[in-house]
Fold each of these.
Amino acid sequence: MKPRVLASHEDPNGTTCVDILAFPDGRFGYAMFRRDPEDGHGWRKTGAPEGPRFATRAEAEQAARDLAPWV
């Protein structure tokens, strides 16, 4: 099963986005995406396919903030 997106945070330039995720097993995580305005393909995931998992949403959000301060 796919994770559920709880929140999506886009950077001020509109080129990077971080989603906060809830996985079916009760854990949380985040995924980072990027897009190039001149490329019509939209958002592309960066990093590991599943990314790190955390026991709480707060831990996932803090880890995402450590990588992307606008979160």
Note: The helical segments are 57-67.
Amino acid sequence: MWTGHRRPTGYHYVHDTRTTVASRLAYLMFIGDLDDVTQVHHLCQNTACVKPDHLEAVDQGENVRRGSGEWVTCDRLHPDDPTRIGQRKDGRSYCKECQRVRERQRRAAFAEKIKRMRSL
């Protein structure tokens, strides 16, 4: 099990010249190469696991199909209420509340930009 830092989503990261998911790094070190679009699937369904025997390279669609089907909390730790979870066209889930917060911030920044431009 990975004992280093884990984000609230359950994934673990290693920081070197760039940020990498620890299970991806374990795959690269002990099994073989990965291209940029290939994901590492945890056969044991435990995102803290970095045991090479439990890791398999798959495409994103296959990784989503094999997933546990359970929502993992968003970075802001919103409740895992099914009405708060949206699904993108590529199959990835997202937190609707976080999306609303980002949209409010984007609109406020745009309104501020327009306000500054009008004051010139």
Note: Residues 42 and 55 are 5 Å apart (CA to CA).
